[in-house]
Amino acid sequence: MPYITKQYTFCAAHKYWNNKWDEEKNYDSFKDDIKLHGHNYTLSVTISGPINDDTGFVICLQKLNKIINREVLDILDHSQIEKDIEWFADKQPSTENLVVFIWNKINNLIISPAKLHCVKLQETPSIYTEYFGESSNG
Are 17 and 46 in contact (CB under 8 A)? Predict the structure, then answer.
């Protein structure tokens, strides 16, 4: 079965802080990331499924673009993640949490027989997180 991946970019800011900890423990855990800072993220959305005989596509990319723009980019782009997005009120704005957030926002909107296979989010040239949904966690 083919897999197609579409990439998107957005800019967002965040800072790490755990209110249960004092400043020293926060600094020990997060270092300078306790200060507000931003990233130019690259989001990769991978869809799997059979090729439609009429279109030759696994998924219509125009429809996927509309979903990603509405459900992800319009929310995350130019946000301060932990401050502006309610889902992060009790969660760190890590790439690990971001891929789960994105998966939850779009998974049920992918029209069968296409299926969301993976959400990958690159925060820096050397850090990215991939998420394959709950079934991949055993």
Answer: no
The phi, psi pair for 133, rounded to 5°, reads 90, 170
Distance CA 73, CA 65 (A): 10
Percent of the chain with pLDDT over 70: 97
Neighbour count for residue 52 (Cβ, 10 Å): 13
Quote the pTM value. Answer: 0.95
Length, in residues, of the chain? 138
Instruction: Specify whether the CB–CB gap between 12 and 39 falls below 8 A.
Output: yes
User: pLDDT (tens digit, 9 = 90+) per residue, 92-108?
Assistant: 999 999 999 999 999 99
Count of other CB atoms within 10 angstroms of residue 106: 19
CATH fold of 3-137: Tetrahydropterin Synthase; Chain A (3.30.479)
Pairwise CA distance, residues 71 & 61, whole Å? 15
